[in-house]
């Protein structure tokens, strides 16, 4: 992965981790270990999707704490988060 894509992924991962409840800090389900990060580039903007993978925390494959949880962000090549798609209507 190229440098700007890594910066975009890092910026989003930090934002998502900071949004988890403080009382859950240290739990695998609220850590980077439980998250998948996918980065794509379109029109000079990185799109970063974060999905939860609870199976990495000992849960059965396909387990979810929320229905179809994910986060999707647009990020500049400099690592500035430009926008977030709301995941709940």
What does this structure look like?
The protein is α+β, with helices and mostly antiparallel strands and 89 residues long. It contains one helix and four strands. It has a four-stranded antiparallel beta sheet, with helices on one face. It is elongated and about 35 Å long. The model has no long low-confidence stretch (mean pLDDT 87).
Summarize the structure.
With 89 residues, the protein is of the alpha+beta class.
Low-confidence stretches: none
Mean pLDDT: 87
Radius of gyration: 13 Å
One letter per element, helices H and strands E, the order comes to HEEEE
Structural class by SSE content: alpha+beta
How much of the polypeptide forms β-strand, as a percent range? 25-35%
Strand order, main sheet: write it out: 1-2-3-4
Distance between the termini: 32 Å
Proportion in helices: 10-25%
The number of helical segments is 1
Main sheet specs: 4 strands, antiparallel
Envelope shape = elongated
Return the domain count.
Answer: 1
Number of distinct beta strands:
4
Main traits of this protein?
89 residues; alpha+beta; 4-stranded antiparallel β-sheet; 1 helix; 4 strands; elongated
Write the layout of secondary structure elements.
Elements: H1 3-19, E1 35-42, E2 45-52, E3 70-75, E4 81-85
